[in-house]
Structure prediction request, 684 residues.
Amino acid sequence: MRELLSGNYAIAEAVRMARAQLIPAYPITPQTPIYERLSEMESQGTLPGTMVRVESEHSAMAMCVAASLAGVRVFTATSSQGIALMHEMLHFASGNRVPVVMGCVNRVLAAPWSFGSDQTDTLSQRDTGWMQFYCEDNQEAFDTIIQAYRVSEATLLPSMVIIDAFFNSHFIEPMDLPDQDQIDLFLPPPMLPERFDLDNPAFVSNVVTAGSQFLPFRETAFHDMENAKEVIREVDQEYRARFGRGYGMVEGIKTDDARLVLVTSGSMTSTARMAIDGLRAKGARVGLLKIKAFRPFPWREVRDVLQDAAKVVVIDRNISLGKEGIFCQELKSAIANSTARPQVHGYIAGLDGVDVSPEILENICLEVLDKEAPDDLPVWVRG
Amino acid sequence: MCTQNIVEDQMRSGHMACPGCGSAIAMRLVLRALGPKTLAVIIPSCSSIIAATHPHSSLRVPAFHGTFETAAPTAAGLSYAMKIRGRNDVAVVAFAGDGGTFDIGLQSLSGTADRNEDYIYVCLDNEAYMNTGIQASSATPQNAWTITTPKGRTARKKNIMEIMAAHRIPYAATASIGYPQDLMDKVQKARSMEGTKFIHILTPCATGWRMAENLTVTAAMLAVETKVFPLYEILGGKTRTITYVPQGLPVEEYLKSQGRYRHLSGVEIERMQAETDEDWECLLRRAMDCQPLCANEKEVV
Prediction:
């Protein structure tokens, strides 16, 4: 069925069709419409699950962890300060191996206060042990929520499905909503391990013996996260076969003969597709790498795409003070041991939702093509 | 109610509590009253030590160790999940210390109480952060020594029962390890009700209260008999009933049993006696305002 939906409403539809059973949530701009739309569905009797109007994001995640451990499919959504407040519980969720799926709408972290998009809120949760999927548009957000439940429940690792404030969350786009019975075939009810067996009682998540038990837990989780890549691939391929859409962990666009590869994530990728077309029309051999999966980081795919490129320019809508853009750091480390060693140029653009137009991206690419060597520090683009 | 006939323990011997631990006694009584169809939530506190380290458990019921400030929403999440899965016969109980209840967990406890989520919250109150080594909490009484209040705490103990009553939850009760029958009856009563139930148990800590290990239960009884820790329950946030009539021993009897009050002068003891009397009168008035008092009302007045 064709629908006109905002990114927030697309996520709410996906959560309804995924038949999430428990949804503890708390409002924050720009995530609020997800919470409101799910509440509306519940009041109309069209939501299969139960909403809980908790008193904080921290409690929302505590409730998600507990219910998920007890075998129930859960969902919550948040942004910015809410993600930061959850930080402790994010580590706790992944450590307890619960397949929580969370919608995240990237927004500036205060101070100073603002509301536009900035990926630093989710990227600063990099080491919490969650999978992170950055979506380009509303259709991808819907499809990724459905896929994330399959991937998380197969790997027992939690997922963040991430969109940009306003560009995705509030802008309405035409999209395709699959039939419920097709979703049900793709995503059957959860079959999670029974952790609270009254006949065989165990103490879940208690203190481990100092020095000998923690490391094996972490090492197992590390390998499971690495192996999750195969699950992500399989689920995406199956989704494509069933619904006609798939995304991959990365997407290379016109990269085969590209001397320069532009690297983007999130909604900026749509703009970058236009910029690449514009540059190609001017005769520049420029390609585009979209990074969708940030954790697990698809280093092999990134290396493959960049194999023949002479230069790479990474546009980050985020910043790690004292270093550089976070996707740029990750990309550099991914190719450090690769035979391909393109120059890597880092640019910071679009913080707080400042519009990054196709012209800006074209000019950045032209500037980098002319540069002899990359700057050591990122280049700031004010828009 | 025939809790006196329950002899099956859901807690094993050989747990890791300090000798003379009041919290371990309280956990044993609570779990005995609840029986085997129970899920327990433990948070960082003495109870996380008592319940033992991976892969062992001193509990015979399934348990989950949540985070410090989330005993309430963790238990509520398990309770929702059990109902969604059709397991309405399983009770969920959260064990939290006074720090996890009065201080860091108060917001989330208030949240679940406001939503009246269906589980039993047990506060094991040993009146300080004992698991980290005797630091003051807002449950530490005025004048009590702790390592972070070497001259005694200046503020008075927070009235957690009135805070919980203000949420109009179906049931809130105080209980003492010195009166196990009363304690277990209250736990069973809580289990029979829908919604958020709060049980506040004073659990003397020989280590932190600076007293001999064999005085735990004596101290618990003295707290009740001196009216420092009266035994009562509040139904629906309104109806207060005193469930045991104390002898009204001098507060000094209670204070002198513990090294943490060793530095007190006569003036301070007199003031604590006056404040205890005032609190008791206040409780009594409220109990009388609401409904006929306990059986031996006349003796009390």
Remarks:
- The longest strand of chain B covers residues 91-97.
- Chain B has a mean pLDDT of 94.
- Chain B is about 40% helix and 15% strand.
- The interface with chain A takes residues 36-37, 39, 41-42, 48-49, 51-57, 59-67, 69-70, 72-78, 80-82, 84-85, 90, 107-108, 110-111, 114-115, 117 of chain B (CB under 8 Å).
